[in-house]
Amino acid sequence: xxxxxxxxxxxxxxxxxxxxxxxxxxxxxxxxxxxxxxxxxxxxxxxxxxxxxxxxxxxxxxxxxxxxxxxxxxxxxxxxxxxxxxxxxxxxxxxxxxxxxxxxxxxxxxxxxxxxxxxxxxxxxxxxxxxxxxxxxxxxxxxxxxxxxxxxxxxxxxxxxxxxxxxxxxxxxxxxxxxxxxxxxxxxxxxxxxxxxxxxxxxxxxxxxxxxxxxxxxxxxxxxxxxxxxxxxxxxxxxxxxxxxxxxxxxxxxxx
Length: 256
Prior knowledge:
Layout: H1 10-22, H2 33-42, H3 46-57, H4 61-65, H5 76-86, H6 92-104, H7 108-111, H8 122-145, E1 161-165, E2 182-186, H9 187-194, E3 198-200, E4 206-208, H10 210-213, H11 219-224, H12 243-253
Antiparallel strand pairs: 1-2, 3-4
Helix pairs in contact: 1-2, 1-3, 1-5, 1-6, 2-3
């Protein structure tokens, strides 16, 4: 460590991973307003934040799978915290949001734009807040990974996009918030994906169900579905869809 530098703390690294999840890979730089803001919160330079984000990129298995390298000198603590976060999606995202709210000096409800008037009381309130915070984190992470682009159509309008689950929320609690179990997709194709009328193969190709293929004479079916048959999805820059989740969807959810 160079003279004058200070060691990163566990809390600082968790906040950095939180930000890493929410930024597209191409925006992990020191001029990004979000990077500058985190630097101000924890008393570091934007350059040091950006460099730490790229350190985490070197640990991201999705990037490794695509041959993309981050900085090569991540610390042992970087890896420990990365593994702790990456292997505990059901808890660490919420914990990181609580930590962020503390540094922001805001309630977690305010930080996540949750209307407190709509919340129940007592333990049910805690449960609802956690669910909403987690859903927001998952959506932000997935859409950022796809650079706010629909993986089927290439549509670039966040208001029309959904962070869809490959393996449903109700069937895999451990991976509900795992961005590798998510795809950025528009509402229509999300509905088709959810109902097994289309799938994504383990080699990231779109496959349309015979239930739609039999209606190929309908112009809408041709324009909205059949034109995408066999095409590769728009891949995310990080958090590549896990092949095991895709195999599950192909074998269990997809209607041949």
